[in-house]
Amino acid sequence: MNPLLDLLHPYPFERLRVLLEGARPPEGLRPLNLGIGEPQHPTPPVIADSLVQNLHLLGKYPPTAGTVELRSAISEWIGRRYAIPCPDPIDQVIPVAGTREALFALAQAVLDPAERAAVLLPNPFYQIYEGAALLAGAEPVYVPTPKEQGYLPDWGAVSAEIWPRVKLAFVCSPGNPTGAVMTLEDWKRVFELADRYGFVVAADECYSEIYNGDPPCGSLQASIALGRGLERVVSLNSLSKRSSAPGLRSGFAAGDADIIKPFLLYRTYHGAAPSSLTQVASVEAWQDETHVVENREKYREKFRIAAELFGPGLQIPSGGFFLWLPVPNDEQQARRLFEQAWVTTLPGTYLGREVNGKNPGQGYLRVALVPDLDVCREALIRIRETLETPTIG
Ligand SMILES: Cc1ncc(COP(=O)(O)O)c(C=O)c1O
Q: Are the beta carbons of 173 and 203 closer than 8 angstroms?
């Protein structure tokens, strides 16, 4: 077997399962799961109807490059969303089977296995970045995202010897788990570093449409605004969160044509093109914004309720659908919440890596506000009550 497989870390949910082993939740309460970040709002009819009407497409192999209609719909969406010239639908856009797949595949296409490249990733982070780097034979370099930096990467923490070896940097805005959003200034800093050291920026923007204030500034938008074209940047996004369709497995990679072209070649072999059926439904989804506004409003309502219940001390994230709740001992509190209130949350420790004796995820619980409003309200009340009660023993 590929020895690099041995380097992969257990997935956070595997660690959660171990933590909760033997825990006995109270009788008489319904279980409430805010652990996994799977969107649960109903998928809008615009997608479901299209799938039903196009079942005959199951008899067709999908084009890896995507249909022209889909590439154009994505390109036009990017142009509208970010108020920039539409990227070239043929040279700068490819549909992918969700952000996760594309994040992983992009690393395999970008990195040269013969050189031990360094790959930057935020810490805490979405674990696919790390696995993608490790399986490409690269070294993941964990960049802390401390509270004092607004939970954005502290690039100053990367040592001088590392920079020349950096070939790829994953950035996530809005971020999972913290919900931090990068401003134009933050993008400027990343692109300055990318241009100085010649690395690719993989911008994971799958939460771009779930936000509490203004629409987040996107990587492509920032790159154009900074007058540097789309060089060395690839934006990855999907319909999973935007359109509450995580099972559709549909997204895109868009950006630098010099990366997209070899990435397409890689993908011919990788074989992860969204099905023809999915491609048709995705055209409709990217062209419709009404359901996206409604979807976003549902998350905003949950954050309003959280703010009401927890008061002004609670930090409401700029984007995404997670609360990043400071707690004294996250593993202990996650188990306690499960045992005493039958609410599942995820310890931040499982989303971070310890570097220099410090795991920046430690001391936080990630609470995914993905179930419907009533479940979220009830779960938040139980969380508040449990955390307010001192731990015994
Ligand atoms: C930060 C981040 N990136 C990517 C993904 C993958 O999303 P998808 O593959 O459904 O687009 C997720 C999903 O949970 C995520 O949290």
A: yes
